[in-house]
Amino acid sequence: MDLNNASAIVTGGASGIGAAVARQLSDKGATVVVADLNAEKGEALAKEIGGMFVSVDVTKTDQVQAAVDAAREAGPLRVLVNSAGIGSAARTIGRDGTIDSAHDLDIWKKVIEINLVGSFDAIRRAATVMSQNDPSDTGEKGAIVSMASVAAFDGQIGQSAYSASKGGIVGMTLPIARDLSAAGIRVNAVAPGLIDTPIYGEGEASEKFKANLGQNVLFPKRLGEASELASMVIELITNPYMNGEVVRVDGGIRMPPK
Questions:
Q1: Does 241 participate in catalysis according to the annotation?
Q2: Straight-line distance from the first to the last Cα atom of the chain, in angstroms, rounded to the nearest whole number
Q3: What is the pLDDT of residues 140-163, one digit of tens each?
Q4: Rounded to 5°, angle at Cα 74 from 70 and 79
Q5: CA 94, CA 184: separation in Å to the nearest integer?
Q6: If you write DSSP's letter for every residue of 38-106 in order, what string do you get?
Q7: Which CATH class is domain 7-249?
Q8: What is the distance between the alpha carbons of residues 26 and 140, in angstroms, rounded to a whole number?
Q9: Count of beta carbons in the 10 Å neighbourhood of residue 247
């Protein structure tokens, strides 16, 4: 898919994996809407890449629509990348065996609402606009990539909410690709492994922690870089024969129980 003069939306695009994707989409000629809650980082990135920032909480459907509208005004909307997400860590039952110490249900629901429901809302809205595009030379009108995780397959202790949300991304990728095939829109997902993002912090202690984590990777024995994951996202967007697929980008890691 040729992205010159097209627009793209990246949710969670202000930092980490989303920012790396936004930069590479810009390099391909797209005008990128950075949809994020972090205005400081989002506006700085949008200025850097010649895109635009829209403040978006993906659980607020009107804000998702605002990002879609902004992208449509910037050029034909041909790309959506769902990168907004949060994690949580809590066991299903508490150590003391009381109901009060069981996993907080509101936290569990929040992870699902952001990671899974928010992604689907962005898909249904962006795809509706994409379906109105003129087809490209390859017959395409748009491409969508959502961020799953190896936790969808190798969820660790305490990851029930996160793994469920990412498992939902995996599970809905093929049926949505089938739904949207008649509209000329491809749908894929990537499942990152251990990726070096700001979530791990900075400084000597952080670097030591990341180095230890990297020893669990098959090869190369390090955390992945956001740019390496972003390059797979770009491949899924630009390769016209990639559809309905979930691709692990993880250095061969299979996560242990904890």
A1: no
A2: 40
A3: 999 999 999 999 999 999 999 999
A4: 80
A5: 48
A6: -HHHHHHHHHHHT-EEEE--TT-HHHHHHHHHHHHHHS-EEEEEE---------SS-TT--GGGSPPHH
A7: alpha beta
A8: 19
A9: 17
Q: How many helices (H) and strands (E) does the chain have?
A: 9, 9
Over the stretch 168-202, which tens digit does the pLDDT of each residue have? Answer: 999 999 999 999 999 999 999 999 999 998 777 77
Q: How many CB atoms lie within 10 A of CB 81?
A: 31
Angstrom distance (rounded) from CA 164 to CA 239: 29
Q: Dihedral sign for Cα 17, 19, 23, 29, please.
A: positive
DSSP lists the bridge partners of residue 52 as 33
Residue 242 gets which letter from DSSP?
Answer: -
CA 173 to chain centre: 13
Which value, in Å, is the radius of gyration of the alpha carbons in the chain?
18
- Please state, in angstroms and rounded to a whole number, the distance separating the CA atoms of residues 19 and 42: 9
Task: Return the H-helix or E-strand segment holding 19.
Answer: helix 16-27
Q: How many CA atoms lie within 13 A of 234 on its CB side?
A: 22
Cα 55 from Cα 46, distance rounded (Å):
12
Amino acid at 167: G
Give the pTM: 0.95
DSSP 8-state symbol, 113 = I
* Residue in 162, 163, 166, 169 annotated catalytic: 162
